[in-house]
Design a protein that fits this description.
124 residues, mainly beta, six-stranded antiparallel β-sheet, four-stranded antiparallel β-sheet
């Protein structure tokens, strides 16, 4: 079965770059038609879709985050990464990676297989 695991620092200082890696096992990130996504949930808020990368490497980003968000992949390691530049305390959240059965540009749960999530704190 496909499993996803987020990995990266739990604390990022303001103005620095948040960098997370999603480690995928039990399936290939190049399998046709799947999309690989990053989402987050801030305290008191719902899930927010940040962006996705396709099995072929195409990327799409949330308009509110696209100016400082980058998703890339390493097919040899079967991993994909999130970089979020110029972070502020408002970026404090639990960050998730997910495998999507299609391009889903919302934070809904249907059609997704999730990692367990990782807490990232940006102190004030």
């Amino acid at each position: 079965q496909v499993q996803l695991q987020e990995w990266g620092p739990g604390l990022v200082k303001p103005s620095q770059t948040l960098s997370l890696t999603c480690i995928v096992s039990g399936g290939s990130i190049t399998t046709m038609d799947y999309w690989w996504s990053w989402l987050r949930q801030s305290p008191g808020k719902g899930l927010e879709w940040m962006g996705s990368i396709s099995y072929s490497g195409s990327t799409y980003y949330s308009p509110s985050l696209k100016s400082r968000t980058s998703i890339s992949r390493d097919t040899s390691r079967n991993q994909f990464t999130l970089q979020l530049n110029s972070v502020t305390p408002e970026d404090t959240a639990v960050y998730y990676c997910a495998r999507d059965s299609s391009l889903i540009t919302t934070g809904g749960a249907e059609g997704r297989i999730w990692g367990q999530g990782t807490q990232v704190t940006v102190p004030s």
